Amino acid sequence: MTSDDQFFFDFLASIPHDVKRYSADVADAIDRHVDYAATAVKDTLTVYLPSIIKPGTRDVSLLHPPKPLSVPERVYNWVLRNRAWTAALIAFFGTGSVLLLGSRVFDQRKRRARRAGNGARKEIVVIAGSPHEPMTRAIAEDLERRGFIVYVVVQSAEEEHIIQTQNRSDIRALHLDITTTPSTPSEIHPALHGIFSLISHAQSPAPGIQPHTCQLSGLIILPSLNYPTGPLPTIPASSWADTVNTRLLSPILITQMFMPLLTHRNHSSSILFLYPSISSSLSAPYAGPEVAITRALSGFATSLRQELRLLQFANGASCNIDVVEMRLGNLDLGSQYRVSQVTGTEILAWSPQQRALYGQSYMSSIEQRPMAAHGPGAIRGSSARVLYNAVFDSLAPPQKSLFGNKKRRKPVVFVGRGSRSYGIIGQWVPSGIIGFMLGYGNSPSTVSSGASSETGWERV
Protein backbone atom coordinates (compact mmCIF):
# COMPACT_ATOMS: atom_id res chain seq x y z
CA MET A 1 0.00 0.00 0.00
CA THR A 2 1.41 3.23 -1.14
CA SER A 3 1.82 6.41 0.90
CA ASP A 4 -1.12 8.05 -0.87
CA ASP A 5 -3.40 5.24 0.17
CA GLN A 6 -2.26 5.58 3.78
CA PHE A 7 -3.05 9.34 3.76
CA PHE A 8 -6.51 8.65 2.37
CA PHE A 9 -7.29 6.10 5.06
CA ASP A 10 -6.04 8.45 7.80
CA PHE A 11 -8.28 11.26 6.47
CA LEU A 12 -11.33 8.94 6.51
CA ALA A 13 -10.53 7.95 10.06
CA SER A 14 -10.45 11.61 11.27
CA ILE A 15 -13.85 12.52 9.74
CA PRO A 16 -16.00 11.04 12.57
CA HIS A 17 -14.03 12.98 15.19
CA ASP A 18 -14.48 16.29 13.32
CA VAL A 19 -18.18 15.66 12.77
CA LYS A 20 -18.61 14.93 16.46
CA ARG A 21 -16.79 18.13 17.46
CA TYR A 22 -18.69 20.33 14.99
CA SER A 23 -22.05 18.84 15.93
CA ALA A 24 -21.30 19.48 19.63
CA ASP A 25 -20.46 23.09 18.89
CA VAL A 26 -23.66 23.52 16.88
CA ALA A 27 -25.73 21.93 19.64
CA ASP A 28 -24.17 24.23 22.25
CA ALA A 29 -24.92 27.31 20.15
CA ILE A 30 -28.52 26.19 19.62
CA ASP A 31 -28.92 25.60 23.36
CA ARG A 32 -27.61 29.06 24.15
CA HIS A 33 -29.99 30.70 21.68
CA VAL A 34 -32.93 28.70 22.95
CA ASP A 35 -32.11 29.58 26.56
CA TYR A 36 -31.83 33.27 25.65
CA ALA A 37 -35.15 33.20 23.80
CA ALA A 38 -36.85 31.37 26.67
CA THR A 39 -35.49 33.88 29.17
CA ALA A 40 -36.70 36.82 27.08
CA VAL A 41 -40.17 35.30 26.68
CA LYS A 42 -40.33 34.52 30.40
CA ASP A 43 -39.32 38.05 31.37
CA THR A 44 -41.92 39.55 29.06
CA LEU A 45 -44.67 37.33 30.40
CA THR A 46 -43.61 38.10 33.97
CA VAL A 47 -44.08 41.81 33.37
CA TYR A 48 -47.54 41.51 31.77
CA LEU A 49 -48.79 38.46 33.67
CA PRO A 50 -47.19 38.70 37.11
CA SER A 51 -49.92 36.68 38.82
CA ILE A 52 -49.47 33.72 36.43
CA ILE A 53 -45.76 33.74 35.69
CA LYS A 54 -43.58 34.30 38.76
CA PRO A 55 -40.04 35.44 38.16
CA GLY A 56 -37.20 33.31 39.24
CA THR A 57 -35.10 34.19 42.20
CA ARG A 58 -32.17 34.85 39.94
CA ASP A 59 -33.88 37.75 38.09
CA VAL A 60 -35.74 39.45 40.98
CA SER A 61 -33.26 42.29 41.34
CA LEU A 62 -33.45 43.06 37.62
CA LEU A 63 -37.25 42.94 37.34
CA HIS A 64 -38.00 44.79 40.59
CA PRO A 65 -35.62 47.71 41.33
CA PRO A 66 -35.25 48.73 44.99
CA LYS A 67 -38.20 50.68 46.45
CA PRO A 68 -37.50 54.44 46.67
CA LEU A 69 -36.93 55.77 50.16
CA SER A 70 -39.66 57.79 51.83
CA VAL A 71 -39.12 61.36 52.98
CA PRO A 72 -38.61 60.44 56.67
CA GLU A 73 -36.07 57.78 55.65
CA ARG A 74 -34.18 60.22 53.45
CA VAL A 75 -34.21 62.82 56.24
CA TYR A 76 -32.94 60.23 58.68
CA ASN A 77 -30.12 59.26 56.35
CA TRP A 78 -29.23 62.94 55.79
CA VAL A 79 -29.16 63.52 59.55
CA LEU A 80 -26.77 60.57 59.98
CA ARG A 81 -24.47 61.96 57.31
CA ASN A 82 -24.61 65.63 58.49
CA ARG A 83 -24.73 65.63 62.27
CA ALA A 84 -23.06 69.02 62.69
CA TRP A 85 -25.56 70.80 60.41
CA THR A 86 -28.41 69.01 62.18
CA ALA A 87 -27.31 70.29 65.57
CA ALA A 88 -26.98 73.86 64.26
CA LEU A 89 -30.47 73.81 62.67
CA ILE A 90 -32.06 72.40 65.81
CA ALA A 91 -30.44 75.11 67.93
CA PHE A 92 -31.54 77.89 65.53
CA PHE A 93 -35.16 76.83 65.08
CA GLY A 94 -35.53 75.78 68.70
CA THR A 95 -34.40 79.16 69.97
CA GLY A 96 -36.68 80.98 67.51
CA SER A 97 -39.68 78.88 68.54
CA VAL A 98 -39.06 79.56 72.21
CA LEU A 99 -38.84 83.31 71.57
CA LEU A 100 -41.97 83.32 69.40
CA LEU A 101 -44.04 81.35 71.89
CA GLY A 102 -42.72 83.50 74.70
CA SER A 103 -43.76 86.69 72.90
CA ARG A 104 -47.27 85.32 72.34
CA VAL A 105 -47.62 84.36 75.96
CA PHE A 106 -46.35 87.79 76.97
CA ASP A 107 -48.85 89.43 74.63
CA GLN A 108 -51.67 87.64 76.46
CA ARG A 109 -50.54 89.02 79.77
CA LYS A 110 -52.80 90.91 82.12
CA ARG A 111 -52.59 94.57 81.24
CA ARG A 112 -51.79 96.47 84.40
CA ALA A 113 -50.18 99.83 85.06
CA ARG A 114 -46.73 99.85 86.61
CA ARG A 115 -46.49 100.48 90.32
CA ALA A 116 -43.90 102.31 92.39
CA GLY A 117 -41.45 100.43 94.56
CA ASN A 118 -43.66 101.00 97.59
CA GLY A 119 -46.71 99.57 95.79
CA ALA A 120 -48.44 102.91 95.22
CA ARG A 121 -49.84 104.07 91.89
CA LYS A 122 -47.47 106.22 89.91
CA GLU A 123 -48.77 106.45 86.32
CA ILE A 124 -51.05 109.39 85.51
CA VAL A 125 -53.41 109.59 82.53
CA VAL A 126 -55.43 112.70 81.62
CA ILE A 127 -58.64 112.32 79.60
CA ALA A 128 -59.72 115.47 77.79
CA GLY A 129 -63.31 114.53 77.15
CA SER A 130 -66.71 115.50 78.46
CA PRO A 131 -67.93 113.38 81.40
CA HIS A 132 -71.35 113.43 79.72
CA GLU A 133 -69.94 111.19 76.99
CA PRO A 134 -70.37 107.46 77.71
CA MET A 135 -66.99 106.60 76.20
CA THR A 136 -65.20 109.06 78.49
CA ARG A 137 -66.65 107.47 81.61
CA ALA A 138 -66.05 103.93 80.34
CA ILE A 139 -62.38 104.54 79.52
CA ALA A 140 -61.80 106.35 82.82
CA GLU A 141 -63.24 103.46 84.84
CA ASP A 142 -61.25 100.86 82.92
CA LEU A 143 -57.94 102.72 83.32
CA GLU A 144 -58.62 103.17 87.03
CA ARG A 145 -59.19 99.43 87.41
CA ARG A 146 -55.88 98.77 85.67
CA GLY A 147 -53.96 100.87 88.19
CA PHE A 148 -53.74 104.36 86.68
CA ILE A 149 -54.40 107.70 88.34
CA VAL A 150 -57.00 109.19 86.01
CA TYR A 151 -57.75 112.89 85.65
CA VAL A 152 -60.82 113.92 83.64
CA VAL A 153 -60.98 117.48 82.33
CA VAL A 154 -64.18 119.23 83.47
CA GLN A 155 -65.57 122.64 82.63
CA SER A 156 -68.41 123.04 85.13
CA ALA A 157 -69.64 121.96 88.54
CA GLU A 158 -72.15 119.63 86.89
CA GLU A 159 -69.38 117.71 85.15
CA GLU A 160 -67.40 117.54 88.38
CA HIS A 161 -70.47 116.05 90.08
CA ILE A 162 -70.61 113.33 87.42
CA ILE A 163 -67.01 112.37 88.24
CA GLN A 164 -67.77 112.29 91.94
CA THR A 165 -70.76 110.01 91.44
CA GLN A 166 -68.45 107.32 90.04
CA ASN A 167 -67.10 106.83 93.59
CA ARG A 168 -63.55 106.11 92.45
CA SER A 169 -60.79 107.65 94.55
CA ASP A 170 -58.30 107.60 91.66
CA ILE A 171 -60.66 109.18 89.12
CA ARG A 172 -60.27 112.87 89.77
CA ALA A 173 -61.74 115.99 88.20
CA LEU A 174 -59.37 118.51 86.63
CA HIS A 175 -60.76 122.02 86.21
CA LEU A 176 -59.09 123.40 83.11
CA ASP A 177 -60.21 126.73 81.72
CA ILE A 178 -58.79 126.96 78.22
CA THR A 179 -59.86 130.59 77.92
CA THR A 180 -57.13 131.57 80.39
CA THR A 181 -53.72 130.78 79.03
CA PRO A 182 -50.26 131.50 80.46
CA SER A 183 -48.26 134.41 79.11
CA THR A 184 -45.99 132.06 77.15
CA PRO A 185 -46.84 128.56 75.85
CA SER A 186 -43.81 127.10 77.67
CA GLU A 187 -45.19 128.07 81.08
CA ILE A 188 -47.31 125.74 83.22
CA HIS A 189 -51.03 126.47 83.25
CA PRO A 190 -52.27 127.36 86.76
CA ALA A 191 -54.67 124.41 86.78
CA LEU A 192 -51.83 121.96 86.00
CA HIS A 193 -49.55 122.81 88.92
CA GLY A 194 -50.97 119.90 90.93
CA ILE A 195 -50.02 117.34 88.28
CA PHE A 196 -46.69 119.08 87.73
CA SER A 197 -45.90 118.69 91.43
CA LEU A 198 -46.68 114.96 91.28
CA ILE A 199 -44.30 114.33 88.37
CA SER A 200 -41.50 116.61 89.56
CA HIS A 201 -41.38 115.99 93.34
CA ALA A 202 -41.27 112.78 95.31
CA GLN A 203 -44.54 111.85 96.98
CA SER A 204 -44.96 109.77 100.13
CA PRO A 205 -48.29 107.89 100.46
CA ALA A 206 -47.99 107.79 104.26
CA PRO A 207 -45.39 108.58 106.93
CA GLY A 208 -42.64 106.01 107.03
CA ILE A 209 -43.20 104.81 103.46
CA GLN A 210 -40.55 105.32 100.83
CA PRO A 211 -41.53 108.27 98.58
CA HIS A 212 -41.91 107.94 94.83
CA THR A 213 -42.30 110.19 91.81
CA CYS A 214 -45.30 109.88 89.53
CA GLN A 215 -45.17 109.85 85.76
CA LEU A 216 -47.49 111.40 83.18
CA SER A 217 -48.02 108.40 80.88
CA GLY A 218 -50.51 109.83 78.47
CA LEU A 219 -53.00 112.42 77.34
CA ILE A 220 -56.22 111.12 75.76
CA ILE A 221 -58.01 113.61 73.51
CA LEU A 222 -61.62 112.47 73.19
CA PRO A 223 -63.95 115.07 71.65
CA SER A 224 -67.67 114.40 71.53
CA LEU A 225 -68.60 111.72 69.01
CA ASN A 226 -71.96 113.34 68.17
CA TYR A 227 -71.86 115.82 65.30
CA PRO A 228 -74.61 117.88 63.68
CA THR A 229 -75.86 116.40 60.43
CA GLY A 230 -77.78 117.72 57.50
CA PRO A 231 -77.28 119.69 54.29
CA LEU A 232 -74.87 122.58 54.49
CA PRO A 233 -77.52 125.35 54.23
CA THR A 234 -79.46 123.86 57.15
CA ILE A 235 -76.56 123.94 59.64
CA PRO A 236 -76.47 127.36 61.33
CA ALA A 237 -73.25 129.27 61.82
CA SER A 238 -73.54 128.94 65.61
CA SER A 239 -73.53 125.15 65.27
CA TRP A 240 -70.40 125.29 63.10
CA ALA A 241 -68.69 127.59 65.61
CA ASP A 242 -69.58 125.33 68.53
CA THR A 243 -68.39 122.24 66.67
CA VAL A 244 -65.07 123.79 65.71
CA ASN A 245 -64.46 125.22 69.18
CA THR A 246 -65.32 122.12 71.21
CA ARG A 247 -64.04 119.38 68.89
CA LEU A 248 -61.06 120.97 67.15
CA LEU A 249 -59.83 124.14 68.81
CA SER A 250 -60.26 122.85 72.37
CA PRO A 251 -58.25 119.61 71.76
CA ILE A 252 -55.46 121.62 70.11
CA LEU A 253 -55.26 124.09 73.01
CA ILE A 254 -55.34 121.30 75.62
CA THR A 255 -52.52 119.51 73.83
CA GLN A 256 -50.53 122.73 73.80
CA MET A 257 -51.07 123.23 77.55
CA PHE A 258 -49.85 119.71 78.39
CA MET A 259 -46.70 119.79 76.26
CA PRO A 260 -44.55 121.35 79.07
CA LEU A 261 -45.62 118.52 81.39
CA LEU A 262 -45.07 115.80 78.80
CA THR A 263 -41.59 117.07 77.95
CA HIS A 264 -40.58 117.86 81.55
CA ARG A 265 -39.07 114.42 81.99
CA ASN A 266 -38.21 112.37 78.93
CA HIS A 267 -40.32 109.38 79.93
CA SER A 268 -42.21 107.19 77.52
CA SER A 269 -45.65 108.76 77.05
CA SER A 270 -48.39 109.03 74.46
CA ILE A 271 -50.89 111.51 73.09
CA LEU A 272 -54.03 109.71 71.87
CA PHE A 273 -56.56 111.25 69.51
CA LEU A 274 -59.84 109.32 69.42
CA TYR A 275 -62.39 110.17 66.74
CA PRO A 276 -65.00 108.39 64.57
CA SER A 277 -63.72 107.33 61.17
CA ILE A 278 -66.49 105.72 59.11
CA SER A 279 -68.16 108.90 57.79
CA SER A 280 -64.85 110.65 57.17
CA SER A 281 -63.43 107.60 55.36
CA LEU A 282 -66.41 107.50 52.99
CA SER A 283 -66.82 111.30 52.79
CA ALA A 284 -70.45 110.66 53.58
CA PRO A 285 -73.02 113.23 52.45
CA TYR A 286 -74.74 115.43 55.03
CA ALA A 287 -71.88 114.79 57.47
CA GLY A 288 -69.83 117.88 56.68
CA PRO A 289 -68.98 118.85 60.27
CA GLU A 290 -67.82 115.36 61.21
CA VAL A 291 -65.75 114.91 58.06
CA ALA A 292 -64.15 118.35 58.42
CA ILE A 293 -63.30 117.99 62.12
CA THR A 294 -61.98 114.41 62.00
CA ARG A 295 -59.77 115.08 59.01
CA ALA A 296 -58.47 118.25 60.64
CA LEU A 297 -57.65 116.31 63.81
CA SER A 298 -55.87 113.66 61.74
CA GLY A 299 -53.80 116.31 59.99
CA PHE A 300 -52.93 117.99 63.28
CA ALA A 301 -51.89 114.65 64.82
CA THR A 302 -49.70 113.81 61.84
CA SER A 303 -47.96 117.19 61.96
CA LEU A 304 -47.43 116.93 65.72
CA ARG A 305 -46.00 113.43 65.32
CA GLN A 306 -43.42 114.64 62.83
CA GLU A 307 -42.59 117.61 65.06
CA LEU A 308 -41.93 115.44 68.12
CA ARG A 309 -39.74 113.06 66.15
CA LEU A 310 -37.44 115.97 65.34
CA LEU A 311 -37.31 117.10 68.98
CA GLN A 312 -33.90 116.73 70.66
CA PHE A 313 -33.22 117.29 74.36
CA ALA A 314 -30.17 118.97 75.80
CA ASN A 315 -28.48 115.63 76.52
CA GLY A 316 -28.91 114.54 72.90
CA ALA A 317 -31.74 112.08 73.61
CA SER A 318 -34.66 111.92 71.22
CA CYS A 319 -38.22 112.54 72.34
CA ASN A 320 -40.13 109.53 73.68
CA ILE A 321 -43.60 110.98 73.09
CA ASP A 322 -45.69 109.10 70.53
CA VAL A 323 -48.79 110.49 68.85
CA VAL A 324 -51.40 107.82 68.17
CA GLU A 325 -54.55 108.26 66.09
CA MET A 326 -57.28 105.89 67.21
CA ARG A 327 -59.87 105.65 64.47
CA LEU A 328 -63.11 104.34 65.92
CA GLY A 329 -65.71 102.17 64.25
CA ASN A 330 -68.82 100.61 65.73
CA LEU A 331 -68.32 99.80 69.42
CA ASP A 332 -70.68 98.29 71.96
CA LEU A 333 -69.86 99.71 75.39
CA GLY A 334 -72.77 97.95 77.06
CA SER A 335 -76.36 98.77 77.87
CA GLN A 336 -75.38 101.13 80.69
CA TYR A 337 -73.58 103.40 78.21
CA ARG A 338 -76.01 103.07 75.32
CA VAL A 339 -77.79 106.27 74.36
CA SER A 340 -80.83 106.27 72.14
CA GLN A 341 -80.74 108.62 69.18
CA VAL A 342 -83.53 110.05 67.06
CA THR A 343 -82.66 110.90 63.46
CA GLY A 344 -84.84 112.59 60.89
CA THR A 345 -86.76 114.87 63.23
CA GLU A 346 -84.34 117.75 62.59
CA ILE A 347 -86.12 118.21 59.27
CA LEU A 348 -88.97 119.84 61.13
CA ALA A 349 -86.74 122.86 61.86
CA TRP A 350 -85.97 123.43 58.18
CA SER A 351 -87.66 125.98 56.00
CA PRO A 352 -90.21 124.76 53.44
CA GLN A 353 -87.80 125.45 50.59
CA GLN A 354 -85.07 123.41 52.28
CA ARG A 355 -87.44 120.53 52.89
CA ALA A 356 -88.47 120.50 49.25
CA LEU A 357 -84.90 120.65 48.03
CA TYR A 358 -83.08 118.34 50.44
CA GLY A 359 -85.76 116.41 52.31
CA GLN A 360 -86.13 113.30 50.16
CA SER A 361 -82.42 112.78 49.55
CA TYR A 362 -81.59 113.38 53.22
CA MET A 363 -84.14 110.85 54.43
CA SER A 364 -82.90 108.37 51.84
CA SER A 365 -79.34 108.76 53.13
CA ILE A 366 -80.20 108.27 56.80
CA GLU A 367 -82.30 105.21 55.95
CA GLN A 368 -79.02 103.51 55.03
CA ARG A 369 -77.96 103.74 58.68
CA PRO A 370 -79.05 100.81 60.86
CA MET A 371 -79.29 103.03 63.94
CA ALA A 372 -81.79 105.29 62.23
CA ALA A 373 -83.99 102.42 61.13
CA HIS A 374 -83.81 100.01 64.08
CA GLY A 375 -82.16 101.88 66.94
CA PRO A 376 -78.73 101.54 68.60
CA GLY A 377 -79.21 97.82 69.33
CA ALA A 378 -79.22 97.01 65.59
CA ILE A 379 -75.52 97.80 65.20
CA ARG A 380 -73.23 94.88 65.98
CA GLY A 381 -70.27 96.72 67.38
CA SER A 382 -67.04 95.30 68.68
CA SER A 383 -66.71 94.51 72.34
CA ALA A 384 -65.65 97.27 74.70
CA ARG A 385 -62.63 95.15 75.64
CA VAL A 386 -61.19 95.81 72.18
CA LEU A 387 -61.24 99.55 72.90
CA TYR A 388 -59.82 99.18 76.41
CA ASN A 389 -56.95 96.95 75.27
CA ALA A 390 -56.11 99.30 72.40
CA VAL A 391 -56.02 102.31 74.74
CA PHE A 392 -53.79 100.50 77.24
CA ASP A 393 -51.40 99.23 74.55
CA SER A 394 -51.05 102.77 73.23
CA LEU A 395 -50.23 104.05 76.72
CA ALA A 396 -47.91 101.24 77.82
CA PRO A 397 -44.18 101.48 77.07
CA PRO A 398 -43.42 99.98 73.65
CA GLN A 399 -42.07 96.44 73.60
CA LYS A 400 -38.66 95.47 72.27
CA SER A 401 -38.10 93.40 69.17
CA LEU A 402 -36.30 90.05 69.06
CA PHE A 403 -33.05 91.89 68.43
CA GLY A 404 -33.49 94.22 71.40
CA ASN A 405 -34.49 97.30 69.43
CA LYS A 406 -37.21 99.50 70.86
CA LYS A 407 -40.40 99.47 68.83
CA ARG A 408 -42.39 102.63 68.23
CA ARG A 409 -46.08 102.67 68.93
CA LYS A 410 -48.36 102.32 65.94
CA PRO A 411 -49.21 105.79 64.60
CA VAL A 412 -52.71 104.73 63.52
CA VAL A 413 -54.84 102.17 65.34
CA PHE A 414 -58.20 100.94 64.01
CA VAL A 415 -60.67 100.09 66.77
CA GLY A 416 -64.19 98.80 66.30
CA ARG A 417 -66.10 96.99 63.63
CA GLY A 418 -65.90 98.67 60.23
CA SER A 419 -63.09 101.10 61.00
CA ARG A 420 -60.41 99.35 58.95
CA SER A 421 -62.68 98.01 56.19
CA TYR A 422 -64.37 101.36 55.55
CA GLY A 423 -60.97 103.03 55.56
CA ILE A 424 -59.81 100.69 52.79
CA ILE A 425 -63.06 101.19 50.87
CA GLY A 426 -62.81 104.97 51.06
CA GLN A 427 -59.19 104.91 49.93
CA TRP A 428 -59.32 102.43 47.06
CA VAL A 429 -62.93 101.97 45.89
CA PRO A 430 -64.14 104.42 43.19
CA SER A 431 -66.49 107.14 44.36
CA GLY A 432 -69.28 105.88 42.11
CA ILE A 433 -69.40 102.53 43.89
CA ILE A 434 -69.29 104.28 47.27
CA GLY A 435 -72.20 106.44 46.16
CA PHE A 436 -74.16 103.33 45.25
CA MET A 437 -73.40 101.90 48.71
CA LEU A 438 -74.68 105.09 50.33
CA GLY A 439 -77.90 105.02 48.33
CA TYR A 440 -77.27 107.70 45.71
CA GLY A 441 -79.96 107.73 43.05
CA ASN A 442 -82.43 105.72 45.14
CA SER A 443 -84.34 108.73 46.40
CA PRO A 444 -87.55 109.69 44.61
CA SER A 445 -87.87 112.82 42.58
CA THR A 446 -87.70 116.00 44.61
CA VAL A 447 -89.63 118.09 42.11
CA SER A 448 -92.72 119.01 44.07
CA SER A 449 -94.38 122.07 45.52
CA GLY A 450 -93.17 123.52 48.78
CA ALA A 451 -96.63 123.25 50.36
CA SER A 452 -97.01 119.55 49.66
CA SER A 453 -93.51 118.81 50.96
CA GLU A 454 -94.16 120.78 54.11
CA THR A 455 -97.37 118.85 54.70
CA GLY A 456 -95.56 115.55 54.25
CA TRP A 457 -92.70 116.35 56.61
CA GLU A 458 -95.06 117.58 59.32
CA ARG A 459 -96.17 113.93 59.67
CA VAL A 460 -92.66 112.78 60.64
UniProtKB/TrEMBL annotation:
It holds the Pfam family DUF1776. The keyword Transmembrane helix applies. Keywords: Membrane, Transmembrane, Transmembrane helix. The chain crosses the membrane at residues 84-106. InterPro entries: DUF1776_fun (IPR013952), NAD(P)-bd_dom_sf (IPR036291). PANTHER family: 3BETA-HYDROXYSTEROID DEHYDROGENASE DHS-16, SHORT-CHAIN DEHYDROGENASE/REDUCTASE FAMILY 9C. This is DUF1776-domain-containing protein. It comes from Talaromyces rugulosus (Penicillium rugulosum). The lineage of its organism: Eukaryota, Fungi, Dikarya, Ascomycota, Pezizomycotina.
